[in-house]
Amino acid sequence: MFAGIDLTVLLVVCGCCLSLLAFGSVLSFGLGIVGFIFDIISTVFNLVFGLVFGVLGSGPEGCCGCIVLLVVLLGCGGITLLLVQSLSSCGTPDAVNFCRIFS
What we know:
- The protein is an all-alpha fold.
- Helices cover about 80% and strands about 0% of the residues.
- The chain contains 3 helices and no strands.
- It is elongated, with a radius of gyration of 33 Å.
- About 0% of the residues are buried.
C-alpha cells in the first residue's frame, strides 16, 4: 500500500494515462497529416476550378488569349502528328521526300 492506494490500482491508472497520452499524440500527428493532405487537394481543386470558371465567366476579351493559346497548342499537336506519320514511312517503299532531310 502506498498512502492508502493499492499498487495495482496505481499501475493501472498510470498505464491508462500513458496509453491516452500515446494515443493522443498519434491521433494529433495523424490528424495533422490528414489535414495537410486535404489542404493540398482543396488547393489543387480551387486552382483548377478557379481557372476554368474564371475563363468561362469572363467576357469575350478574357477568352481571346485562351482561344489563341488553344489554337496554337492544337497547331503544334497537328504538326507533330504530321511529322511523326511522315517519318514513320521512311525506309519503306512509300517514303516521302521529307525523309531525305533526316537521312
